[in-house]
């Protein structure tokens, strides 16, 4: 293209170039996010089984969800329980281990890798099938309990009390990426703050609560929000390990949504579930942001 | 004093090392179990070393299901993961450059949209996207597993690369501009070569996530010929499947090999990627 041509000049204006570079995202955002969400908003007001054309039924799906579907509420409760327990637990674990690993030793690189590996592969189907067999009556968990004198063939996945905990343990086991985030946040805390605290006679505990923790709150906040949202939509592990059993005690929201759409052919109802969850996490994020000023340290 | 310090260090390492072993124990147990005779895996579950070290589980597992071997499943996974990753990297690099170096109308809104999409978990789009791809006639093929990724829909990668480009001095751009270089020339000749660390980090994450992806395969792939490894492994866990646990653990172990190898080779990049993307909102 000749560099004096009008087209060249137009394309090379900063404004045009910016739009052109961002074009993939503009197209992708509309085609794979806005359009599907828009379609599903319409279907959420329809009786739709994918195979036959949708029938408009107004708010029926939403009314049924909130007033006439016990399984919906059970799945909602199980999901909230899972997210509210596993996410804080994982963050606390991550922070403790990060505090331990922050002082470099010769083996720190190795430890970091060992603790990080589970979060790289923990979401895979391979680990899910392993987990399912680990907590079986004849699985390795009971076998190890046997070696320390507790002889049992308890079915961890068969009890409403323990089944969800196998999934929580699996989630907490993957604390590695949060640990790495905390590690790099810890390294960014200026050393002179600790020195100043020492001059004032601060103990290790005071230093942690008065210097370390406040400076970490922005990181904790961001990861809490992101992991909560993802926790509310946990899917693969529940689908493979427990299939929602026993008695829907591990039937996560996303799994129930999947079942409604693909096992019971109620895509309209499933769309309504998707939109309800979207509003729920939107609201939750908003509330979390409102609490920010009470506990998140503002560096500015 | 010195003795006391040595004891302290020793206790530290014993505890941290011991905890590391507990963390990795399940994986190590699966790895060793894959070399046990299938019938003895659970009768000898508490011991980690196989009584008899065998490799037949790998041979049996590799045969796969209904005459389709794991070779096919691995090939499918590789095909999907590589194409989706290439699409992600190219599109995200373009968008990241646009966001980082150009001012244009609507940029703020667009950027907000990207951050919002970053917070939106894929599961919430499961049903809506399925219904849309159904209309497009994509269900049953690889398209839903590859094409969307070619449009920078994962904000994580755009954000990662943007952070990197922001760190490249603008003087380089200005100098090239004076020499008559266009925005496209600057991107192709200056920024792109300089951002290879961000490309590598992004490539590793994308490949691992696509390799592990189970949900979209479950939704869109019906034909066993087209199954990726993740979906094939689920067949082992399905109720009523023949319970050859040796073969199951052998194939599960094998499916983790690419990820674990990448993990150990590119660990530094992974650590950097996690650190830059998780620190700020």
Describe the structure.
The complex is a heterodimer of chains A (300) and B (281). Chain A has 300 residues and is mainly alpha-helical. Helix content of chain A is 72%, strand content 1%. Chain A starts with 5 loop residues before the first helix and ends in a 5-residue tail after the last helix. With 281 residues, chain B is an all-alpha fold. Chain B contains 14 helices and no strands. The two termini of chain B are 46 Å apart. The relative contact order of chain B is 0.13.
List keywords for this structure.
heterodimer, A: 300 residues, mainly alpha, MetI-like fold, 2 domains, two-stranded antiparallel sheet, B: 281 residues, 14 helices
What's the topology here?
The complex is a heterodimer of chains A (300) and B (281).
Chain A: H1 6-11, H2 14-43, E1 46-47, E2 55-56, H3 60-67, H4 70-101, H5 108-121, H6 125-134, H7 140-147, H8 163-173, H9 176-187, H10 191-199, H11 204-231, H12 236-242, H13 253-263, H14 267-295
Antiparallel strand pairs in A: 1-2
Chain B: H1 2-33, H2 56-62, H3 70-101, H4 107-119, H5 126-136, H6 143-146, H7 155-166, H8 170-178, H9 183-194, H10 196-212, H11 215-220, H12 229-237, H13 245-265, H14 267-278
Mean pLDDT of chain A: 89
- Can you give the helix content of chain B as a percent range? over 70%
Q: Rg of chain A from C-alpha positions?
A: 25 Å
Instruction: Find the CATH superfamily of the largest domain in chain A.
Output: MetI-like
